[in-house]
Design a protein that fits this description.
Largest sheet: 4 strands, antiparallel
Radius of gyration: 33 Å
Distance between the termini: 128 Å
Number of helices: 2
Oligomer: single chain
Structural class: alpha+beta
Strand content: 15-25%
Number of domains: 1
Order of helices and strands: HHEEEEEE
Strand order of the largest sheet: 1-2-5-6
C-alpha cells in the first residue's frame, strides 16, 4: 500500500491577514480623530482667551479715559448720568465680514460725587466709577460674558 500524506501544509509566506489590517486602520483612525478633536478644542480655548484679553483692553482703556476726565474735572452733567445704552466695540473679527465679528457693549453706571474729609481734606469729590463690558460669543457657546471694573478717582478741580 502506498502511503499518502494527507497533512495540510501551511504557506510559508509571511504577512498580515485582512482582519489585522482592518484593526490597525481602526486604531489609527481613532487616534487621529482624538488628536484632531484635542487640537480644535485647544484652538477654541485660545480664541476665547484672546477675546477676553481684547475685552479687558477695551474696558481698561475706557476706564482710563473716564478717570482722566474726572481727575481734570471735565465731566458734564450728561456724563454723570452714565451710559445705560452702551457703547459698541468690536473685540474679535477674524475676517472683515461684519456677521462674524464679536461685538461687545461697554456700560457705565451713573456718577455721583462723594465728599469725604477723611480721604480728601480739600473737599474735592471723588466718584465711584463702575463700568462693565458684555459680549456674546456666537462662534462658540452663545453665553453672555461680562467683565466689571471699578475705580474711585478724585476730581482735582
Amino acid at each position: 500500500m502506498s502511503s499518502r500524506r494527507s497533512s495540510v501544509t501551511r504557506s510559508s509566506e509571511s504577512g498580515f491577514t485582512l482582519i489585522e489590517v482592518i484593526v490597525g486602520l481602526l486604531i489609527v483612525a481613532i487616534t487621529a480623530s482624538t488628536v484632531f478633536y484635542g487640537a480644535s478644542y485647544a484652538r477654541a480655548e485660545i480664541r476665547k482667551i484672546a477675546i477676553r484679553e481684547r475685552a479687558l483692553e477695551e474696558i481698561s482703556g475706557y476706564m482710563e479715559y473716564w478717570i482722566a476726565l474726572i481727575n481734570y474735572g471735565q465731566i458734564s452733567v450728561n456724563d454723570k448720568s452714565g451710559d445705560s445704552r452702551g457703547e459698541e466695540v468690536i473685540i474679535y473679527n477674524p475676517t472683515d465680514e461684519k456677521d462674524k465679528a464679536i461685538v461687545a457693549k461697554i456700560f457705565r453706571e451713573p456718577l455721583e460725587p462723594i465728599y469725604s474729609e477723611e480721604y480728601n481734606p480739600q473737599s474735592n469729590p471723588y466718584y465711584y466709577l463702575k463700568a462693565r463690558i458684555v459680549w456674546v460669543d456666537h462662534l462658540a457657546d452663545n453665553e453672555e460674558t461680562e467683565i466689571y471694573l471699578e475705580a474711585k478717582p478724585f476730581s482735582y478741580r
